[in-house]
Amino acid sequence: MAKLNVVVILAEALRQDHCGCYGNTWIHTPHLDRLAAGAARFTRCYSEALGSAAARRAMLTGRRSFPDAGGPATDTPSDLSRCLAQAGYWTGMAADISEPWTRPMNLAEYTVNAKHLTAVKTELAETLAARGLPQKEADWPVARVYSRAMELLRENASKKQPFFLTIKHAAPAPPWAPPQNYTEMYDRGYEGPAKRGIYPLSGKADWLNERQLKHLRALYAGEVTLMDAWLGKFLAALGELDLMDKTLIVFAGDHGVALGEHGLTGYVPAALYPELTDVPAVYYDPELKTARSVGGLIYNIDLMATIMNRLGVAAQPVLEGIDVRPMLDGGHGGRPYLTSVLGDAIWIRNASHVLIAHRRGSQFELYELADDAKLDRNVAERHLGLCEEMFALAVKDAGGEL
Question: Of 242, 247, 292, 312, which is most buried, counting CB atoms within 10 Å of its CB?
């Protein structure tokens, strides 16, 4: 029997609730939705470290970063691509992480007022000064990533060798400046500041008025739909090459981003609410005959362990994930609890509660999920014993010290 191919797609800052396959009704993600319609869609999959670099490194090594928000140690064992190369796979990657755009950016065009401009210049001047908008959609970074991935598919098509292809793209992470037609799907006729794009501040959302906040959300939505359009082209290429029934596909996010919820925008470490923690996770296996919605708690690194076990690779690196395939048929319910980290903020979730705390064991926020899924009502003062019990789980996962 021929070996299955593998495609792993990692999308940065993609919120679960901004995908149609997770119930969103106003943002267009038809291609991701179509993939999910023939796959397992995990509704409670989380990154075990919420910094982008940490989450990506954990996914590609199959090992936890927690409690180090900066990523696994440098002596991490061989990653999955090296392991599969040794098993006879061709391995490749298409990515744009840290790739600069080529035209100068006038930061005043991407800010809403002088205070915002000053803050962006102070924080990101060197990063953004070299960026600017491409002229054609095909030149947008996410389009270039998927175009390169399609080139790699076609280059490998004539070979009899199975492949492991990783696709990493920063979209829909900021700055948010999609082609204008994508923005106008969600905010036609806007003529205010930052019309073509914006870089959000991380903190209180009071730097925007309500109309500007609506436009910020439209820009993010446009980035999501642009990403989905090029994902669709890539999936179409898989179909044209007769590879869909020969390929495992994992599509996963690393973290979300605040768009005004809880009065915040951007990435605020202490605000580990669903808009920041909840991400999509889709596992496509050609042997799955019906779509599944799976509600058990898992980490996204569990999907990598699942791939390695599904392929039957004998010599595997040290993996810290679990095989989620039994969950697809009710074999087990996933993990009993999860822990994650962003900066000094620790996040612990079980079936019924979420706890957010400072890593020194203070500033507890406790939320009861049964009637507060958006985490609006902090009940920590009424349940300090439960807070301490849940925080102890994070200390245990950290090896005894946070």
Answer: 247
Antiparallel, parallel or unpaired: β 337-342 and 345-350 = antiparallel
Burial of 343 (0-12, 13-18, 19+ CB in 10 A): middle
Please tell me the distance from the alpha carbon of residue 51 to that of residue 350, in angstroms, as a whole number: 21
Tens digit of each residue's pLDDT (9 = 90 or more) over 121-148: 776 655 555 455 677 999 898 999 999 9
Q: What digits encode the pLDDT tens for the residues 25-63?
A: 999 999 999 999 999 999 999 999 998 888 888 888 888
**CA atoms within 13 Å, Cβ hemisphere of 166:** 21
| All structural domains of the chain | 5-335 (3.40.720.10), 344-402 (no CATH)
Please list, residue by residue across 208-235, b when 16 or more beta carbons sit within 10 angstroms of its beta carbon and e when fewer do: beeebbbbbbbbbbbbbbbbbbbbbebb
C-alpha span between 341 and 183 (Å, rounded): 32
Do 312 and 248 meet the contact criterion of CB atoms below 8 Å apart? no
Q: How far from chain centre, in Å, is Cα 202?
A: 18
Ranges of residues in the chain with a pLDDT under 50 are: 71-78, 98-103, 130
The answer to whether the CB of 291 falls within 8 A of the CB of 38 is yes
Helices 141-157 and 210-240, axial angle in degrees (round to 10): 10
pLDDT tens for 302-342 read 999 999 999 988 766 678 899 999 999 877 889 999 999 99
Q: Which amino acid is present at 351?
A: A
Peptide bond preceding 172 in cis form (omega within 30 of 0) = yes
User: Quick check: helix, strand or coil at residue 116?
Assistant: helix
Q: What is the DSSP letter of 331?
A: S
